UniProtKB/TrEMBL annotation:
Protein's UniProt name: DNA-directed RNA polymerase specialized sigma subunit, sigma24-like
Coiled coil feature spans: none
Gene Ontology annotations for the cellular component aspect, listed alphabetically: DNA-directed RNA polymerase complex
Isomerase in keyword set: no
Gene3D superfamilies assigned: 1.10.1740.10, Winged helix-like DNA-binding domain superfamily/Winged helix DNA-binding domain
Source domain of life: Bacteria
Lineage, broadest ranks: Bacteria, Pseudomonadati, Myxococcota, Myxococcia, Myxococcales
Length: 193
């Protein structure tokens, strides 16, 4: 190899072609270890990017394929560690006691615009289910997440989006009445179907 790296430029496409030519094999290798094709594809893409910057670390007595498998194993382990930390953090948040939410006041619930209840039915089904389960029935977000088959974080996001969609629907439907918090509803609109 020359001091200017002219041979490196010629070898790089050969290394990339060699690795990409084995793409299906690499993907199966990663997928067997992580159990998800989407996650395996993500890890493999990250490994390809890393290989472009780390190809110079290949030892003279090591084949590029063996080196790339080692890079994939390390990427899998790093990914598992990251997901483990995220999972433990979410579990800790779900278990830690937070501020107790006040119980709804029955008189206040009666005074709230009856349009709200009817407008829940106009939301996307997954939003309506989130609102009913958590806001109306008082279920914990974690319990709702488990029932819906989603992560607690995803449930929180879904509930936030559902609340925002309901807020927009009430504002659009009730107009100025909604500006006052819909207490003592004075809108004379027919109720949504």
């Amino acid at each position: 190899m020359g001091c200017c790296g002219s041979n490196d430029m010629r070898e790089s496409p050969t290394i990339a072609e060699n690795l990409y030519g084995q793409n299906d094999r690499f993907l199966r290798f990663v997928e067997r270890r992580v159990g998800s094709k989407a996650l395996a594809e993500e890890i493999l893409q990250d490994a390809y990017v890393k290989s472009l910057t780390s190809a110079g670390s290949v030892r003279d007595d090591e084949s590029i394929t063996a080196w790339f498998y080692r890079l994939l194993r390390n990427a899998i382990i790093d990914g598992q560690r990251r997901r483990g930390v995220e999972s433990r953090s979410l579990e800790r948040i779900a278990v830690e006691p937070g501020e107790a939410e006040p119980l709804p006041d029955a008189a206040l619930m009666d005074a709230v615009c009856s349009c709200v209840g009817a407008l829940v039915d106009t939301l996307k089904p997954e939003y309506a289910a989130a609102i009913r389960r958590v806001e109306v029935e008082g279920s914990a977000v974690g319990a709702f997440a488990e029932e819906a088959g989603i992560t607690p974080n995803n449930a929180r996001v879904r509930l936030h989006r559902a609340r925002e969609a309901l807020r927009r629907a009430v504002t659009e439907y009730c107009g100025s009445c909604a500006g006052g918090g819909c207490r003592d509803c004075s809108c004379q609109s027919p109720r949504p179907a």
